[in-house]
Write a structure and sequence with these properties.
Elements: E1 2-8, H1 15-27, E2 36-42, E3 47-53, E4 67-68, E5 74-82, H2 85-90, H3 102-119, E6 124-132, E7 137-142, E8 151-154, E9 160-163, H4 166-170, H5 181-190, E10 203-205, E11 210-214, E12 222-225, H6 229-238, H7 245-262, E13 270-273, H8 278-290, E14 296-302, H9 310-320, E15 323-329, H10 331-337, H11 341-345, H12 354-365, E16 370-372, H13 377-381, H14 385-399, H15 402-414, H16 417-426, H17 437-449, H18 452-461, H19 486-512, E17 517-519, H20 525-533, H21 547-554, H22 573-578, H23 582-588, H24 591-596, H25 601-613, H26 619-644
Parallel strand pairs: 13-14, 13-16, 14-15, 16-17
Antiparallel strand pairs: 1-3, 1-9, 2-3, 4-5, 5-6, 6-7, 7-11, 8-9, 8-10, 11-12
């Protein structure tokens, strides 16, 4: 696991300056790779490749990057892990291997099969830049699900830039950091900046499952997707799996176990996150069966009982026999982390579970260098509540006039979330206890206003309607095949957008900020391809999602530990904003600053005061604004520091 960065500058250039810029771009990613660093410069072409190393496989110098193929044609910088690289070596006879790194395997694969032919054979997570000296072409490649990030852009003097994060591009002295208003508008739609946008006009994210080939620094890339969940689910519909429950469960178990087994490959200490939920518990259980020694596991709980699952995690760890370490998060710990979030997450990002995610990564890094994660199980195996009731709501919106739906939505929203929660507590029993009833009813209100299943998906992610921007646009979603039913549309849209842009971004930035490699076996692409062919009964049954995962976990853990309402990995951000975070928030919500940021100050401040008064539970919506404002302040501070910093620097 590493950080990669580089540039391609055409024409006459000062090579010492190019190398110095390459060093600055590379070292802006030092947290991603604190173990080693190197740089290469192709003086004839003006290509600079930089690499920061977090040594996981082949800790020797033979694993260093940039790495050149034996023929000298290809040179690579690579972030990630290709878990099946040893199997690929067996398909590449006659290669005189120098070391045991997967990077060396990748180069041999490119020489044997070409870029497109090699990439489809890789099982893993990867973002890489491959310089082809013979063809004078630069290839940028990102893994199928978007586990590893890769951004590219251009400087004002026409150089092509790329890196694992925007930090690397901003380290170039002639990179334009101006904010893209379309990207900012998209941020307020989704609480993250969705690909292909970045927050900057001058940069874009490479879409997951994509190869982009540049023939010159100023040329438009030739892009082709080598894997796309839309095609995967179309193929799944065309060739569904048949069989009884037991045979299908056995097939799922075998695929998951192999995905976990491959991700135990490491030359450094390895552990796993264990939240107490279904996904992480199953990953840990499978890892325990494959590993040669007890696994180290880590969990973050909350001092707020409504958000705490840590006791279930601790009991699950005892049942499975792991060596468990737990930590409970309170407002004081959040206050320590919040000032670091704009730097950690690189651009505006406001999924509030970023706070416990960072802290569990920090906790794990004190003991291990690699950690398995259960992320992706909800998207792949039907775990979100929207998969259960979303199709019914979408059908209702088709049948009921918008004016009627709007009236019901207004009635639901007229009652604050806290009041709904109080009613749920007061009348339980005899009524069944419903956790976070207010949040669910307010989401239902947003869903009632939506048009169709795609509109519902967008409405559930949106915290603001209308946008807090003074001038805002609606961001288009990626098109989906008409052949998909409502539930499949929700799942595929999550795999295309929510999973890579939110969940995997969160895990990557939080883990890499502490130089921890996070591995996600539930979204091994072979698991996703299998899930796309499963009959729906294997995912959703009896009003619950993830039926197959529940049954597999029940083979290993008592049901009482996981058959309970879903908690999620969240924090009481609304209560914190009324309490210990209030002063910090108010410093960012000054009217003049909001106006200067292009936000509608009247709308934002009205919602802030309604939240403080308890008339509205707007914590997550306000977190969007606060995250953007905090990032904006940090960007300004960084640009001021760069202006004060003397020019120069040396090549390594």
């Amino acid at each position: 696991m590493c950080g990669i960065a580089g540039l391609w500058h055409a024409g006459a250039a000062d090579l010492e300056e190019l190398a110095a810029i390459g060093v600055s771009m590379r070292d802006a990613l030092t947290p991603r790779g604190p173990d080693d660093a190197d740089l290469s410069v192709d003086t004839r072409a003006g290509v600079v490749l930089g690499h920061r190393r977090l040594a996981i496989l082949d800790l020797s110098p033979e694993g260093r990057q940039p790495m050149r193929s034996p023929s000298g044609r290809y040179e690579i910088v690579f972030n990630g892990e290709v878990y099946n690289h040893l199997a690929l070596r067996r398909e590449l006879p006659g290669v005189a291997w120098r070391g045991s790194s997967d990077t060396e395997t990748l180069l041999a694969a490119f020489e044997a099969w070409g870029v497109d032919g090699a990439v489809v054979r890789f099982v893993g997570m990867f973002a890489l830049a491959l310089w082809d000296r013979e063809a004078r072409a630069l290839h940028l490649v990102r893994d199928r699900l978007g586990i590893k990030p890769l951004v590219w852009g251009r400087s004002t003097d026409g150089a092509l830039l790329f890196g694992s994060e925007l930090h690397a591009l901003r380290a170039h002295p002639r990179f334009d950091t101006s904010v893209d208003p379309e990207a900012l508008s998209a941020f307020f739609e989704t609480s993250c900046v969705p690909a292909p946008w970045t927050i900057h006009r001058a940069a874009r994210k490479l879409l997951p499952g994509t190869i982009a080939t540049f023939s010159a620094p100023g040329a438009a890339p030739v892009e082709r997707r080598f894997w796309d969940p839309r095609a995967v689910f179309l193929e799944g519909q065309a060739s569904p799996l048949a069989g009884d429950d037991r045979s299908l469960l056995d097939a799922i178990e075998a695929t998951l176990k192999d995905a976990v087994r491959l991700r135990l490959l490491a030359d450094v200490p390895l552990g796993a996150f264990l939240s107490g939920g279904i996904d992480s518990s199953l990953v840990v259980a499978l890892a325990q069966e494959v590993a040669s020694s007890p696994l180290q596991t880590f969990s973050i709980g909350s001092t707020d009982a409504a958000y705490d699952e840590s006791s279930f995690a601790e009991e699950t760890a005892r049942v499975l026999g792991t060596r468990h370490t737990a930590f409970r998060l309170g407002a004081a710990e959040a206050l320590e982390v919040i000032p670091r979030l704009p730097t950690i997450f690189d651009e505006p990002f406001s999924d509030s579970s970023q706070i416990p995610t960072f802290l569990v990564c920090q906790l794990a890094r004190r003991h291990v260098t690699v950690a398995l994660s259960g992320d992706g199980g909800d998207e792949v195996f039907g775990g979100y509540n929207r998969y259960l009731w979303g199709p019914r709501v979408a059908e209702l919106t088709r049948r009921v006039p918008a004016s009627w739906r709007g009236s019901v939505a207004r009635l639901l929203e007229a009652v604050p979330q806290s009041t709904w929660d109080g009613l749920a507590s007061t009348f339980s029993p005899p009524l069944p206890r419903t956790r976070l009833l207010g949040d669910k009813l307010h989401k239902a209100a947003r869903g009632m206003r939506a048009e169709g299943i795609d509109g519902l998906h967008a409405a559930l992610r949106r915290q603001w309607n209308p946008s807090p921007m003074a001038m805002a646009t609606r961001s288009p979603s990626q098109p989906l095949p008409a052949a998909f039913d409502a539930r499949t549309r929700l799942v595929v849209r999550d795999l295309l957008e929510y999973l890579p842009d939110d969940i995997l971004t969160k895990v990557d930035r939080a883990s890499m900020a502490v130089a921890l490699e996070a591995r996600v076996p539930l979204i091994d692409h072979r698991v996703v391809e299998l899930a796309a062919r499963l009959p729906e009964r294997m995912k959703i049954r009896g009003g619950k999602g993830k039926w197959a995962l529940r049954e597999l976990l029940a083979r290993r853990v008592p049901r009482r530990l996981f058959e309970r309402p879903k908690t999620g990995f969240s924090v009481p951000i609304g209560a914190w904003l009324r309490g210990p975070l209030r002063g910090w928030a108010e410093s960012l919500l000054e009217r003049s600053a909001l106006d200067g940021a292009g936000l509608d100050a009247d709308r934002v401040l009205a919602r802030w005061h309604a939240h403080l008064d308890g008339r509205e539970e707007a914590g997550l919506a306000l977190w969007d604004v606060l995250s953007y404002r905090a990032w904006q302040v940090e960007l300004t501070r960084g640009e001021s520091a760069n202006r004060r910093r003397p020019e120069g620097g040396g090549a390594p």
